[in-house]
Design goal:
By secondary structure, this protein is of the alpha+beta class. It is built from 16 helices and 21 strands.
């Protein structure tokens, strides 16, 4: 059984997109007694005075639709238990979103959805400078404290000070946040910032000021309480985290009563654990394993998600061969994207990597560059490179898909005389190098990377991170694209904003700033008796509440 879901966010490639988001924003800018013990296996933090964990794959119904417990293998382990003070919040998304609610919830097209989350409603002033939120009454933290506007302000100020990703959204144009009354909070800006509703609010996880005041910084950090459907039980670093259903949760009660989340970095190990019956659900399943798992009877859900897999050019050096748009177009034409999609990626990702029909700024004229070797050769000759040239081709060490793309591109470009010097870079080194390359007008760089063009939280976010000329890590610049981005960021009306986004992508397409190969996708595989519905918020987030019986 395969479920494919259209949405607006990221994938295995989720980690890459999250890394890019965090690094580029940084560049821009429980009840009962609790105990903590240390073991040889690492630090173990326990809440609720119990030694019982959810370390089981039993899925026996405990009531109407209840699932006693599930074991989930996830690729990412949190850096910290407090989402408002993590230095790199993307590492926290997969697990902590089960325990914490964000201020703004989004729907399956990535649009803020009024009423789904803790905010009952919101009002944006005509000039876009004030956003006022009304909170639902009666929401409780796991500590028993009620959620109030003061908690929103506390969470915001704490994240602003401690979380570079969140703080980067407020580097310019923000004035202050204030509690108007117990259930009303207002955010005031000096210039409109549409990204707050798409990236800021959905990633402002709410923590309790009352709980912080009672227990202090150390305990607050070690033993978290949120308002989410699950509450913290135990974390053994490097191994697992357990949580149980919060029976006083304000929303719909989820079927799963307890979750045991094990941290397994290697994707094939996760797949093997599923096949052996050791886990019930795995995230970021390798694309080449989807067919085999399906044939064995496992259920697979596929989420269309950013980023794409693309050839991305450093276009700031006119002396490099690919400083000429004809050379970039030749490279785009020489790659048989359809063959890669079908034969290497097994048809899992979408071939079209440009914004989709459900996204703001969709342009039906933006299609994959065709496969045309003869035209590619003619363009190279016209540009003065009839015999080709040598070209560095970097890719991040972030799973098999990126490496497979680099190897395939290198083979296709041989046919038009381009010899690729393929080089793998560890992700941290890639980020460091991108900052250096962006500011070096003599850099000769081509990379296999993941621009967030399709399935991002909002298209303007991906544009700003990958294609804004003033981004300190950007390798492309076009004054018209910069103008479009600047206008889109301050335009709340989707129709008008869509015009700016569509124009920006049309110019990027014309410039061949990137040669997309495939769109991104995240595959989740579950045991034969369960199904999983991916979340639109982030592909990296694995919501236990979205697991149900088949």
């Amino acid at each position: 059984m395969v479920i494919r879901k259209k949405t607006a966010h990221r994938g295995l490639l989720a980690l890459l997109a999250l890394v890019l988001m965090g690094m580029m924003l940084l560049a821009a800018a429980c009840g009962g007694e609790e105990t903590t013990t240390t073991t040889a296996g690492g630090t173990e933090t326990t809440a609720g005075g119990t030694e019982t964990t959810a370390a089981t794959t039993e899925t026996t119904a405990g009531g109407a639709g209840d699932i006693e417990s599930v074991t989930v293998a996830v690729s990412l382990e949190p850096q910290a238990l407090d989402p408002t003070s993590s230095k790199f919040n993307p590492m926290n998304y997969p697990v902590l979103a089960n325990m914490f609610d964000a201020l703004v919830s989004v729907n399956n097209t990535g649009q803020p959805d009024m009423g789904k989350g803790v905010a009952e409603s919101w009002t944006i002033s005509p000039d876009g400078l004030t956003i006022e939120f009304k909170l639902k009454d009666g929401i409780k933290f796991h500590s028993g404290d009620p959620l109030t506007a003061a908690d929103v302000v506390f969470s915001h100020e704490r994240a602003l000070a401690n979380n570079p990703e969140y703080g980067g959204l407020f580097a310019r144009g923000f004035d202050h946040a204030e509690a108007v009354d117990n259930l009303t909070v207002k955010f005031v800006f000096t210039t409109p910032n549409v990204l707050f509703m798409f990236s800021g609010g959905p990633h402002l996880y709410l923590v309790s000021k009352a709980y912080f005041d009672k227990v202090g910084e150390q305990e607050f950090m070690a033993k978290p309480v949120g308002t989410g459907p699950y509450q913290f039980v135990v974390w053994k670093t490097g191994e697992y985290m357990d949580m149980v259903r919060f029976e006083d949760y304000w929303g719909e009660k989820p079927p799963v009563k307890a979750g045991h989340m094990v941290f397994v970095g290697d994707p094939m190990t996760r797949v093997q654990m599923l096949q052996a019956g050791e886990v019930d659900l795995v995230d970021t399943t390798p694309w080449d394993q989807v067919g085999a798992l399906r044939d064995e009877g496992f259920n697979v859900a596929i989420l269309d998600a950013a980023p794409s897999i693309s050839v991305q050019f450093h276009t700031k050096n006119p002396k490099a061969p690919w400083g000429d748009v004809r050379v970039r177009e030749a490279i785009a034409l020489a790659i048989d994207k359809e063959s890669i999609q079908k034969n290497i990626y097994h048809g899992i990702p979408n071939l079209v990597a440009w914004p989709a029909e459900w996204e703001v700024g969709y342009n039906p004229d933006l299609k994959p560059y065709p496969f045309d070797v003869e035209k590619a050769k003619a363009l190279l000759a016209e540009a003065g490179y009839p015999d080709g040239f040598n070209m560095p081709l970097y890719f991040p060490m972030m799973g098999a898909e990126m490496q497979q793309a680099a190897e395939a591109v290198a083979l296709y470009l041989q046919a038009i005389g381009i010899t690729c010097e393929v080089q793998a870079l560890e992700m941290g080194k890639m980020m460091e190098s991108m900052r250096t390359w962006a500011n070096d007008l003599n850099a000769e760089v081509v990379i296999i990377m993941g621009p967030m063009m399709r399935g991002a939280p909002d298209p303007i976010g991906g544009l700003q991170r990958q294609f804004y000329g003033k981004n300190p890590m950007g390798m492309y610049t076009n004054p018209q694209v910069d103008t479009d981005i600047e206008q889109a960021v301050v335009t709340f009306d989707n129709a008008k904003r869509g015009e700016f986004i569509a124009d920006a992508f049309a110019n990027i397409y014309k410039d061949v700033a990137v040669a997309p190969i495939v769109a991104g996708a995240t595959a989740y595989a579950t045991s034969k008796d369960l199904v999983f519905t991916p979340a639109a918020v982030d592909p990296a987030v694995l919501y236990l509440k979205n697991i149900a019986r088949k």
